[in-house]
Amino acid sequence: MKIIFDPDIPRNLIPYIKQAIEEAIEEPCECGCDEVYASMQSENNIDVKCYDCGTSYFELEIEEVEVEEIPEGPSSTVDSMKK
Ligand SMILES: [Zn+2]
User: Fold this and answer.
1) CA–CA dist 63, 45 (Å, integer)
2) Backbone angles phi, psi at 8, to 5 degrees
3) 40 CA distance to ligand 1 centroid (A)?
4) Cα-to-centroid distance, 49 and ligand 1 (Å)
5) How remote is the CA of residue 12 from the centroid of ligand 1, in Å?
6) Which of 23, 35, 62, 81 could make a disulfide contact with 51, Cβ separation 3.0–4.6 Å?
7) pTM of this prediction?
8) Distance of CA 5 from the midpoint of ligand 1 (Å)
9) Under 8 Å between Cβ of 70 and 83
10) What's the rounded Cα separation, in Å, for the pair 19 and 83?
11) 32-69 pLDDT, tens per residue?
C-alpha cells in the first residue's frame, strides 16, 4: 500500500500517520486503487482517503500525539538524549 501525504502535514507526524494507516486499512479500496491519500483536515485532524476515487477510510485525531522536534545534525543535545 502506497501512502501519499499532503505537503501540509508536519513531517514529524508522518511516521505516526503511516503506522495508523497500515494498522487500520487491511484491504485496498473497492475501486482497486491501493494508494491512500492523507490530507490535513483541520489542525488536529487527518483525513485518510482513497487517492483514486476519494472514498474516505477514516479520520485520524492527532491531538494526543507528542510532537518532538528532531534536532538537525549532530550536537551535544543529541548525545545527551541517547539511551
Ligand atoms: Zn477508491
Assistant:
1) 8
2) -75, -20
3) 19
4) 8
5) 27
6) 35
7) 0.72
8) 16
9) no
10) 24
11) 999 999 999 988 899 999 999 999 999 999 875 555 66
Q: How far is the CA of 78 from the centre of ligand 1 (A)?
A: 42
- Centroid of ligand 1 to alpha carbon of 64 (angstroms): 29
| Percentage with pLDDT > 90 across the chain | 61
32: alpha, beta or left? (left if phi > 0; alpha if psi -120 to 50): left
Distance between start and end Cα atoms, the chain: 33
Distance CA 83, CA 65 (A): 22
Residue type at 34? D
Write the CA distances from 13 to 3, 16, 63, 79, 81, integer angstroms.
13, 5, 11, 23, 20
